[in-house]
Amino acid sequence: MSFVHLQVHSEYSLQDSLVRVDALIQRVVKEKMPAVALTDVDNVFGFVKFYQTALKHGIKPICGVDLTVTIKGVIGRVLLIAKNNQGYHDLLYLVSLKYTQYPQGVPLLEFPERCEHLIMIISPWQSIHSVLFEAGQQDKVSDILTVLKLHFHHRLYLGLLGWSVAKIQQVDRWHLALCEQFNIAPVALGAVCFLQAEQFKAHQVRVCIHASRLLYDASFEPGYFQEQSFENQLLIERFEYMPKALNNTLLIAKQATVTLELGRNYLPEVMAPNHMHPSDYFRAEAEAGLVFRFGNQIDDVLRERLNEEVGIILRMGFASYFLIVADFISWAKSQKIPVGPGRGSGAGSLVAYVLKITDINPLKYGLLFERFLNPERVSMPDFDIDFCMDRRDEVIQYVVHKYGKEAVSQIITYGTMAAKAVVRDVGRVLGQPYGFMDKLAKLIPFELGITLEKAMEKEKELERRYKTEEAVKQVIDLSLELEGLVRNVGRHAGGVVIAPGKLTNFTALYQESIESIQPVTQYDKDDIEKIGLVKFDFLGLRTLTIIDWACQTIRDHQGLQVDFSIEKIPLDDLKTFELIQKGNTTGVFQVESRGMKDLILRLVPDCFEDLVALVALYRPGPLQSGMVDDFIDRKHGRSDVAYPHASLSEILKPTYGVILYQEQVMQIAQVLSGYSLGAADLLRRAMGKKKVEEMEAQRALFVDGAKKQGVDPDQAGGIFDLVEKFAGYGFNKSHSAAYALITYQTAWLKANHPDALMSAVLSSDMDNTDKVVGFYEDTLKQNIKVLPVCINSSMCRFVVEEPMVIRYGLAAIKGVGDGFAQSVVHERKARGPYRDIIDFCVRLEHAKVNRKMLEALIKAGACDCLGQERGILYASIDRILAQRDKLLKDQCNFQGDMLGGIMSAQAQWQAVGEPWLKALQLSYERDVLGLYLSSHPMLVFRQEVAALGAKSLLELKDRAKNVLVGAVFLSSRVVYTKTGKRLIILVIEDEKSKEELLLSEQEYERAQVDLKAGEVLLFEVTVSIRHDGAKRFLCDRIWTIADRRLLTQSKLLIAIEGDQFVELAPALNHLFLVTKSGRCQVQLMIKDGGLKINVPCKKTILLDSQWLEQLKKLPGVICQVKYC
Predict the structure, then answer these.
(1) CATH 3.30.1900.20 correct for 273-409+491-542
(2) What is the pLDDT at residue 725?
(3) In this predicted model, what pLDDT tens digit does every residue of 102-123 receive, in sequence order?
(4) Which contacts of 923-926 are long-range, i.e. CB under 8 A and separated by 24 or more positions?
(5) Residue-level pLDDT at 1028
(6) pTM
(7) What CATH architecture does domain 11-193+232-255 belong to?
(8) Is 418-483 assigned to CATH 1.10.357.10?
């Protein structure tokens, strides 16, 4: 006997299913079932994927939703299945209502017209009936079924499950009675949430993860049962007594037929001026744009190219698309919102250039339109548009306003359960201790997209623990079941759809809450395109914001003309290329990494075309194939520039005979073998796919075409092989050229206005301390002075105060948010500088100044301008806030003059505490800034570490062994060799330099040092030289200063002026009483005029850094440590 599953939850239900769409369809095929339904809870997230996969395997897809509704005041779920295409659209509408208007439940009966093409099934499990049954309100069901029959007639069914669960059996019997009473047909259900019965435990774990509960918590009843597996035979056996319940599944499956029209595109209508037809308007705009871009420089080549592109665009029906994109870009530019010069293959279109969609002249750089839009392969054009990160949303809101809120939406994304996160989640649900799970999760390599299976291959310790520890095996096995499942939903970074009418005619909408600004589509970007909606990419590029900020600084501070624009800079600036050639590219778009800097030093770019090539060369394929070495040797004359055929010289000349770009592959096929550029693009795509049969067919066409051009067939075959080889490495030149322009612009700014660029770069990543540190170090290398953060001088961002002087930004302090920083600046601008700490706290009461904020400001040194020591201010915070509160209370009670109260507040407030030791002050500074701004710990310890025999980092020779280096430990990370061996990278710095040390895992474990960020340590280092000439530092051993002192004979020399000795004697005596005994001898010398009296000291002490600093703070004391 056959049947069809009509209630199946997939992973897209987010909380209660392990069912993956592909695995579901494979199981249906295996069971030889004719159809299957997908009925996720309150959504259709997975329906298009389900629909396509089912049809591909000859299975009929049934579209349904397990929808939360409100009927007669009762809230619960019902299964709604689309009977036809209209029913499908009704489902999209109703599901959208669930999120946009009725989060508690859709009042279904208020929309009777939406019920006519739907089939309703009420399940015994987690449904509106189970809600009534568990509440003991079965008497309400009569009214509900009566009204439902009026709306659904014979399309209303009551489900049966046949489980052994007592309460489900009771509902089943109740349903059978109701079927008799109301003449409603019964139907068999499975309520499937997992495919195999043995997955039940993993399913329960998933439910617990979503509910934030423990698996073995007796007080938690998830409400799922082992019977909810996709077991065909078991379900048939359950309903042997009632075959009609099984037959009705087939009847419903036969009735429910939804056909999606995939592949057709739907664009919104463009309103052209003066009642023009959009096609005529498009052509007119292109013609006008050509004149704007080229003026009297228009020649036959330009005119022919424009006419050809316009003709193709019109024939393919994409004129409206170009006009829509041109419109919102034009609006953005009119609002002074920075827009990128282009991205991707769109920069190859002359029409895009003249419509001001892009800012790269495609003819100047040999860019091809067919790479973007191929007339021989119909697919939607796809412009990726970069906007200033801070103002991108303004452009999206413009589009919403222009086309209507109901027609515009951003696109959903699905977050999945990744390896590290799922291990932590499973461990937590199983009740494993945090420390146990933290160590286990940290064994998984930090690698994008890594799976647990690959992690165990790479990390032998993880594999060992899996094989030897039962607790680890249990966590990993359950995690493998859950890994990759959809866990949550989000919003696509830049994808926006504009529909020709209401979006709900095409997709359901999802919204986190009714208060959300804008819903998102329930279909992701791939499925949105499949159903015909056109995606527009509004991407945020931080570099555009940086360029905008830098240009504004130039206008404000450099005295240049107001209309200064980055678009007007020359592309052959000598200073710019000198900066790039030196690898001085920190803060320069795309070329900041160490690998890119190494490539720059070898390539020595000296023109814009070299920058275009640089972007294309720095990828794994070219780097590993030898293409990069060949390119560089040819550029510098170390190898001859040769061409596969004389006719290809013009195509390959810019790249020294190397096939570097995808456009070159297309041009070679056009010139050598007579391909049209459209056919050449198809050839390029075929070469990328590497399908044997297709490549043999293309080879024959290529050779035959070349033969007709007079090329020897054997030579043509060799050229085809060469092109095929390099096609796999070829890069899109249009994208490379567009992004090379941004690279050049940021390099020009750094070469000509370094203070403006670096202040903008520092400001762009204020919330990422690691990046701020790197940019700060580079700023100092540019001979730019960085002034300390200050509540009376700093702005929210980093700013140029005067040429080559940058003031640190308030918002860059950890614990001081952007909003509070703006409040500090706004109040200071409105009412003048802050006089003291009380004045600051009172004036910023509206900004909710609290202990955490004050701590951060004080640690950063932002309050130094108020004239009090940081340690004293920090220790007095409670008194400061109490005094603030008293003054504010007095103000509320009108007790005295408020201004006078504040002026006298300092006298009423008594400070406590004492100044911090220098090392502690710097440690706190680094905690909140990520760096040492006012000084450096090595300046405190330099004299002593030098006495211990340690060198500075800059003193390390090219080749040295077992050299002792003193430096501050900053951080460590784990890397893996190609053989899977673990290495530890230690990042250290002193007052003048920063380096990375390589430490083997064995040496790391042997090191008896607890590495703490910010601690001054001694490192025994071996220096070698890499093949590229760079230094390589191997760490052989690590010492604390205290450990090194114990091994080294030392003497502490203390000198005191005689007239101060009596006064200092008690403090000295106390210090010597509290210190421990050790190997350091003490020699005390009292200076009295010209006399020097040595006072013998029998006690030998243990040197301690804090003890030494306290000794040095005593007035008139001079001390020095000497090591023997």
Answers:
(1) yes
(2) 84
(3) 999 999 999 999 999 999 999 9
(4) 923/1014, 924/859, 924/870, 925/859, 925/860, 925/861, 926/1013, 926/1014
(5) 62
(6) 0.85
(7) Alpha-Beta Barrel (3.20)
(8) no
